[in-house]
Amino acid sequence: EDTWETMESSILGIPYWCVKEIVDSDASKSSDYECLRMEYHATPTPPDEHQQPGSFGAFHIKLYWERRILLSHNETLDREWCMVSNYDGYPGSGVCWYGLEERNCTSTQLYIGKCLSGDERQWFFFDDLGSAYSGSQDHREVLIKTLDHHCLYRRASAIYVTTECDPNDPTQRFFALSGSFTPSSDPTAPSRFEIGQYLGYTLDNCLTNAHHPKSGEVVEFHVCEAARAHDDQTSYWELLRFPGFTGSLSNVARRSGNTAGSGAMLSNNKDNKNDVP
User: Fold this and answer.
1) What domains, with CATH codes, occur in the chain?
2) Looking at the record, which segments are called Disordered (predicted)?
3) How far is it between the farthest Cα atoms of the chain?
């Protein structure tokens, strides 16, 4: 049975809280420590439905995993990799991964890291734009926002964070290229989805990492077919909610008949990219 070992550390005088996974009670199979900078300020307030109409509550956006997908060097367990903004390297090194190349992290770029419920940089929420821009109920678009109300946007193939949220900017609008943004009510069968944009080539591109995931790896658009074809990569994500922090649902979510913790209905029923108009 897997267990978790935690510790507090100081790197260059900066306090960190670290966690590592012990596989089957065997320390020799344990993962490296994944460390989170300890921020001494007030915990951010989850988005309020009255302040943010169209928000679906806060969640992590996690790389989808199932037993056949060997994301971490032939291991048949879920390491839980989540999107993270304002990443500062592992652990606090300032170094990130761009494919097989190590370079300095960019504070405004999007990466993946070990899913940690207390890491405010991993919490996101959706603002539902409906079909106002896509013109199709099958492809309802969203703004993906951080807890401090900044928005993700695309620059070339990479994803960055901007303080200027603008639904009229097509680089800030995302939709479920396949699957559904709606969290599954069955924890053994989570809803999975691919993230795309209505911008030329990105209809055939999915937002993901390049290969075996690791802390500080950049999140970019890649060709969907390539990501789908390999067992060491996935083009899919899922929404991860931790007990005790579900955020608040919007009027949009309640109108769709969902209950707290299940999210709002945002889906594309077409699983084949060739079916996308």
Assistant:
1) 1-41 (no CATH), 46-275 (2.80.10.50)
2) 256-277
3) 54
